[in-house]
């Protein structure tokens, strides 16, 4: 069973019933009506709509008070509120009209009277503004408040559309009430009389009058008996019995629908927004809106069959059914219809305002400067589907704003949204004698009696000032009719954003107009972007009460717009197009500025301004008159109509512009000033596009030049463009020096973050009621949406390895994945800090202005806040443990012997990424849109990684030096392990831990079955040292046989040269020949997986793979960093021997830097074997450097490679290579510490100077002549090994 609840109305509740209908009898406890809490006092909570002009049932009476408060609807407001309908007489709707009207009495018969109707374009932005008396906002503890904003149009859509929606011309109770004279039954003829206003249709009222009221609602002790059983009878509006209830009707309004929301039958109103004190109700409001769902009605089958229209089934002596069961029992046709098929209403926080006050509320419009206070506001985007039903170019509409106030004495929502579930929701069970509060109830509420000693002669009772038909109350105001028009199909505003700029208020001082307001522009602070359009339009009346304070002709509303230099000025500023100084730049072009200044915009105006600003007096104006009632007093704007339409103006001049109305800006009496900010973006866009294009061009030049250099026989290299790219010194120098060639990805990433922040900020500006810091928070949030997905890309090893094989590797940073992973992580932390700070600022703002609870409650009391804090905590932990200093440290943990390495902690903490990603999906409603594809890609990468993990057999494990572990492995499947020289794998040993650690493959890619790893395993390295202990359980002994073992000979020591020089092929053959040879004590049997279980994951690519693309190589290794180059050197040597090199190799200079002599032992024979081939000795140059203490007596000179003590002079080394091979690029590859990498990177930059010709003078005789030397053509390209 579905509940249908409500919050707007006298109780602002609605009954729950099966299938969304209501019962005609008191509902059971399972089907009780839901209601908002009622107040315990009389609530005078009037609401007044100021923009668009709210009528409060006024038309054109020359009086501050409404003369017929039943004309169109029941407002429950003070009769002094509201604004007269707009006029459009030229120049005034008074007396005889024309230039000599004489009397100031309003003349409704003149052309243009009551015709000053506003219009708004589809999709344009309109700021609604209102004041409510009894307070609002969640921090307003005196009341609970709900505001519902709706509109209705004559577009022919919906079941009760009124095709002749109009304001009318008469306001009397006899000739002006909608449907016919007050006290008489309405008729179709009278409903169509043009002098009567009309909102709801006659069919709507007749069906309401015929339908039984919802008897499951709470009505307290109000008597709705005696025939008061129709939907025209409610607790707030009891009305008369059914036989004569037309005496109390308010136009053609349905009282039950007016008092409750959402209503349980189809209505002619479309929902715009629901503002509530409790945002937990938003899901319900949006789901129950008629915008998105149908509601049921009991149809008369005869009428339905004849006309196809559903009219309420009724009988002469009883009310018609209001629910499906009763409808079917009475022979009716239950039909559900009325859905508007449009967006659900926007739901937001009610703006804070204090009670017993009709002044300003807390800021509710984003972007307002200094968080200024203003009237309650809501920014409405005029819907673009209103005209779809008829295909017409315009529709007449009316706006309705309903305001409910109640207290918490009774909780109508108990059990519905989880609040106060111990309390019983109030419904019809508490009606009549069971009412919890009765009218003017008297009792000893405090509990003093009985008091007998001493006798006081009183029972100390109190009387409550209570009228139960006003316990919880709904007020409303409606605008005068307006039109919605199609956007222009052509012109500069056809596709640009449109903002409406209007004028609110009416003639009189603050006392005379109260509870309406004096003149002001709406919005007072308007911000638009360059190229967007502003629709300048306002209206006024010529029927204000005589004698009200004001300027210009009595009883008339007039406004104009004149620019000033600042808001503090009252004197208009001289425009830049006029003569004289000083002058200010206008927001308009010249003719538009003149039109606004004079309050005339049409082409037939009699105003005539020259370019110099001199005016030619016309026949209309009398510049000398000081009579403010003279229509010819143009300086008082008397000759202009009350309605003004300046049309659409595209704002093409960025800046901040201030303006006033010279007629109404009366300083100490009233102020009519405003500001328009035009945010410039075109120049910024041009600069940004220029920068992007420049970077793209430079990057393209880099890529093309690289392609031409690496493919000298290609089409590009042979073309003129290729020759220019390769040989032109100045162009090459420019490219090499540019930022695009060195850090294009970093620059692109930072630009992306800035663009995302701007997009998020701009989109958030459209939200109504948001704190000032909200758009900034959303800007950071938009950047986080992308960054939190992008951070996974650099660590998708399979994806990166695949990208290395594509042309994308030329411009993607596939060699710096670790750097970009860290960079993105740093950007995430920065954006998250900004996001959190802005949200806390918003929490503080809401707590201050009563739009929310405490800061802590807002931050942690909602899922998005709690999940956000968890995400931030986990990300911070991952970032801190990812620092290099942390990873290299060791920590003692409670309850654990020894210390734990920082890398182990880092590895385990980083697994929180799974939880972080899951939290992000549920933290933000829009995150999934950004994360769906990256998450699928991440899952695919992980699935591929699962297949890449393979168990391996330990063939040999030995320790060539004290701190190095050498492993020879082969796949358990017996298949060949395929890899490229320079690649790396991840190794796992189950007996040590579940961690995976990366190591470079040190064997040649040409080997058949086995591959080798060399691992540093010092005692301070927790995982690798534990691995060495697991694999080498006793002293350093061999676990693999030599060839003599197979033959039955003695088993030599690991330290013998014979074993060191044993080739992988020989070893494999030995393993296959004797798979069960017993190992020495503590060793592992050869070829048998009875020791620790090992698995590898990979291989994965690295920057070292690029070595095969260079003719000249400089390979630099430090310590154990020799492992990738051992594989590379052996592979290059074998390819050179068989003439299979990808690029002809001219020189390969290898530099190995170690602390002592012992570190050379593990690869010394490999190096010597390469030089054993005379042909290879001319290509390969091997250099070893010992940086630590050297015992010269123990050093044995070896002529096969160069031996040095100390550190290399990289400048000398680089210059020697450059001079030997001036036309070739030199690939510089390094695997070692950061200090060594920085030195080699600096060398590459130094030896690759800008392309310029060097001037050389040869003595005094050569002063007039110079010889230019051409520098080397090749460059040094730096590559750093990263894991």
TrEMBL record:
Record GO terms (molecular function): oxidoreductase activity
User: Which UniProt keywords are present, listed alphabetically?
Assistant: Membrane, Oxidoreductase, Transmembrane, Transmembrane helix
Gene3D superfamilies referenced in this protein's UniProt entry, alphabetically: Nucleotide-binding domain of ferredoxin-NADP reductase (FNR) module, Translation factors
Question: Where does the record place Basic and acidic residues bias?
Answer: 227-238
Q: Which GO terms describe its cellular component?
A: membrane
- Which residues span the membrane? 680-704, 743-764, 776-795, 823-845, 865-883, 903-922
Q: Which InterPro entries does this one have?
A: Cyt_b245_heavy_chain, FAD-bd_8, FAD-bd_FR_type, Fe3_Rdtase_TM_dom, Fe_red_NAD-bd_6, FNR_nucleotide-bd, Protein_DD3-3_O-glyco, Riboflavin_synthase-like_b-brl
Q: Region labeled Disordered — which residues? A: 166-195, 221-252, 345-370, 539-558
Subcellular location(s): the record lists: Membrane
Q: How does it sit in the membrane?
A: Multi-pass membrane protein
According to the entry, every stretch annotated as the FAD-binding FR-type domain falls at: 947-1057
Looking at the record's lineage, which domain of life comes first?
Eukaryota
Which PANTHER family does the record match to this protein? PROTEIN DD3-3
UniProt protein name:
FAD-binding FR-type domain-containing protein
Native source organism of the sequence = Emiliania huxleyi (strain CCMP1516)
Q: What is the lineage of its organism?
A: Eukaryota, Haptista, Haptophyta, Prymnesiophyceae, Isochrysidales
């Amino acid at each position: 069973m579905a509940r249908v609840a409500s919050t707007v109305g006298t109780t602002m509740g609605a009954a729950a019933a099966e299938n969304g209908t209501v019962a005609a009898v008191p509902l059971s406890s399972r089907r009780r009506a839901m209601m908002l809490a009622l107040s315990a006092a009389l609530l005078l909570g009037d609401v007044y709509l100021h923009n668009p002009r709210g009528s409060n049932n006024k038309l054109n009476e020359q009086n501050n008070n409404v003369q017929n408060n039943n004309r169109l609807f029941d407002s429950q407001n003070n009769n002094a509120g509201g604004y007269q309908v707009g006029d459009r007489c030229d120049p005034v709707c008074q007396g005889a009209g024309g230039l000599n009207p004489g009397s100031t009495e309003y003349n409704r018969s003149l052309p243009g009277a009551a015709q000053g109707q506003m219009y708004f374009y589809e999709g344009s932005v309109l700021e609604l503004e209102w004041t409510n008396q009894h307070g609002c906002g969640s921090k307003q503890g005196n009341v609970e408040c709900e505001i519902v904003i709706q509109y209705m149009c004559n577009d022919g859509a919906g079941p009760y559309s009124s095709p002749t929606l109009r304001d009318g011309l008469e306001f009397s109770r006899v000739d002006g009430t909608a449907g016919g004279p007050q006290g008489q039954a309405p008729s179709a003829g009278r409903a169509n009389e043009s002098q009567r206003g009309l909102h709801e249709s006659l069919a709507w009222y007749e069906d309401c009058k015929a339908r039984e009221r919802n008897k499951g609602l709470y009505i307290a002790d109000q008597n709705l008996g005696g025939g008061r059983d129709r939907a025209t009878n409610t607790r707030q509006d009891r009305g008369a019995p059914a036989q004569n209830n037309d005496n109390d009707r308010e136009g053609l309004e349905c009282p039950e629908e007016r008092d409750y929301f959402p209503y349980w039958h189809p209505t002619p109103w479309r929902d715009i927004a629901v503002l509530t004190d409790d945002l937990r109700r938003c899901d319900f409001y949006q789901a129950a809106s008629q915008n998105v769902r149908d509601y049921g009605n009991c149809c008369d089958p005869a009428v339905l069959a004849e006309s196809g229209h559903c009219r309420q089934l009724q009988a002469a002596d009883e009310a018609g059914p209001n629910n499906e069961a009763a409808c079917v029992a009475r022979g009716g046709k239950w039909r559900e219809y009325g859905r508007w098929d449009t967006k659900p209403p926007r739901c937001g926080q009610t703006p804070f305002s204090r009670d017993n006050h009709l002044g300003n509320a807390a800021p509710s419009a984003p972007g307002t400067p200094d968080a200024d206070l203003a009237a309650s506001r809501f920014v409405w985007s005029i819907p673009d589907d209103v005209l779809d039903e008829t295909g017409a170019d315009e529709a007449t509409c009316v706006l309705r704003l309903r305001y409910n106030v109640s207290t918490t004495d009774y909780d109508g929502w108990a059990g519905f949204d989880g609040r106060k579930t111990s309390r019983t929701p109030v419904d019809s069970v508490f009606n009549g004698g069971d009412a919890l509060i009765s009218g003017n109830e008297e009792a000893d509420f405090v509990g003093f009696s009985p008091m007998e000693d001493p006798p006081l002669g009183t029972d100390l009772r109190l009387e409550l000032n209570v009228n139960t038909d006003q316990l919880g109350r709904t007020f409303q105001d409606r605008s005068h009719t307006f039109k919605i028009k199609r956007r222009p199909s052509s012109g500069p505003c056809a596709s640009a954003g449109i903002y409406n700029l209007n004028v609110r208020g009416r003639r009189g001082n603050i006392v005379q107009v109260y509870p309406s307001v004096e003149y002001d522009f709406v919005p007072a602070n308007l911000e638009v972007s360059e190229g967007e359009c502003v629709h300048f339009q306002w209206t006024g009346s010529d029927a204000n009460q005589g004698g009200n304070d004001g300027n210009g002709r009595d009883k008339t509303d007039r406004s104009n717009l004149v620019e000033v230099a600042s808001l503090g000025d009252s004197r208009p500023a001289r425009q830049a197009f006029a003569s004289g100084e000083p002058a200010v730049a206008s927001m308009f072009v010249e003719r538009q500025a003149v039109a606004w200044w004079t309050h005339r915009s049409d082409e037939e105006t009699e105003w005539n301004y020259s370019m110099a600003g001199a005016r030619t007096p016309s026949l209309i104006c009398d510049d000398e008159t000081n009579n403010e009632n003279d229509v010819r007093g143009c300086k008082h704007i008397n000759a202009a109509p009350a309605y003004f339409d300046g049309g659409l103006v595209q704002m093409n001049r960025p800046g901040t512009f201030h303006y006033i109305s010279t007629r109404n800006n009366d300083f100490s009496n009233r102020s009519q000033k405003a500001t328009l900010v035009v945010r410039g973006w075109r120049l910024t866009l041009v600069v940004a596009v220029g920068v992007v294009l420049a970077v793209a061009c430079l990057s393209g030049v880099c890529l093309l030049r690289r392609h031409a250099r690496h493919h000298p026989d290609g089409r590009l290299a042979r073309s003129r463009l290729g020759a220019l790219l390769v040989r032109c010194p100045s162009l090459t120098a420019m490219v090499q020096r540019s930022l695009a060639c060195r850090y294009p990805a970093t620059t692109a990433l930072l630009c992306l973050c800035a663009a995302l922040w701007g997009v998020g900020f701009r989109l958030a500006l459209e939200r109504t009621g948001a704190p000032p810091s909200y758009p900034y928070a959303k800007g950071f949030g938009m950047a986080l949406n992308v960054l939190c997905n992008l951070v996974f890309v650099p660590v998708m090893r399979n994806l990166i390895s695949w990208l290395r094989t594509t042309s994308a590797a030329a411009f993607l940073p596939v060699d710096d994945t670790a750097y970009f992973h860290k960079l993105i992580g740093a950007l995430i932390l920065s954006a998250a800090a900004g996001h959190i700070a802005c949200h806390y600022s918003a929490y503080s703002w809401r707590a201050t202005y009563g739009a929310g609870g405490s800061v802590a409650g807002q931050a942690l009391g909602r899922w998005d806040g709690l999940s956000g804090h968890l995400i931030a905590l986990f990300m911070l932990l991952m970032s801190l443990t990812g620092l290099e200093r942390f990873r290299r440290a060791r920590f003692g943990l409670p309850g654990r012997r020894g210390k734990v390495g920082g890398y182990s902690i880092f590895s385990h903490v980083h697994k929180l990424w799974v939880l972080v990603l899951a939290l992000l999906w549920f933290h933000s409603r829009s995150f999934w849109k950004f994360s769906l594809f990256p998450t699928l890609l991440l899952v695919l990468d992980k699935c591929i990684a699962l297949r890449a993990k393979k168990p391996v057999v330990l063939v040999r494990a030995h320790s060539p030096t004290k701190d190095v572990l050498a492993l020879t492995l082969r796949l358990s499947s017996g298949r060949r392990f395929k890899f490229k020289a320079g690649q790396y794998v991840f190794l796992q040993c189950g007996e040590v831990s579940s961690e995976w650690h990366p190591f470079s493959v040190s064997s040649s890619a040409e080997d058949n079955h086995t591959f080798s790893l060399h691992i540093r395993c010092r005692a301070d390295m927790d995982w690798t040292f534990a691995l060495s202990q697991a694999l080498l359980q006793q002293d350093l002994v061999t676990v693999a046989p030599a060839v003599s073992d197979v033959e039955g000979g003695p088993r030599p020591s690991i330290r013998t040269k014979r074993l060191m020089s044993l080739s992988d092929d020989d070893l494999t053959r030995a393993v296959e020949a004797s798979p069960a040879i017993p190992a020495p004590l503590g060793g592992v049997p050869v070829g048998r997986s009875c020791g620790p279980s090992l698995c590898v994951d990979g291989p994965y690519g690295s920057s070292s793979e690029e070595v095969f693309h260079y003719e000249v190589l400089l390979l630099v290794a430090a310590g154990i960093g020799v492992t990738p180059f051992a594989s590379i050197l052996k592979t290059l040597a074998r390819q050179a021997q068989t003439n299979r090199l990808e690029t002809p190799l001219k020189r390969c200079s290898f530099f190995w830097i170690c602390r002592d002599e012992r570190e050379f032992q593990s690869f010394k024979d490999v190096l010597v074997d390469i030089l054993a081939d005379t042909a290879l000795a001319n290509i390969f140059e091997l250099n070893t450097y010992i940086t630590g203490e050297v015992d010269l007596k123990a050093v044995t000179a070896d002529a096969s490679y160069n031996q040095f003590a100390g550190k290399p002079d990289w400048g000398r080394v680089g210059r020697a290579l450059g001079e030997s091979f001036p036309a070739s690029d030199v690939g510089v590859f390094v695997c070692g510490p950061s200090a060594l990498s920085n030195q080699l990177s600096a060398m590459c930059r130094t030896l690759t100077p800008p392309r310029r010709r060097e001037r050389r003078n040869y003595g005094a005789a050569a002063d007039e002549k110079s010889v230019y030397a051409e520098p080397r053509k090749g460059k040094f390209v730096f590559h750093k090994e990263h894991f």
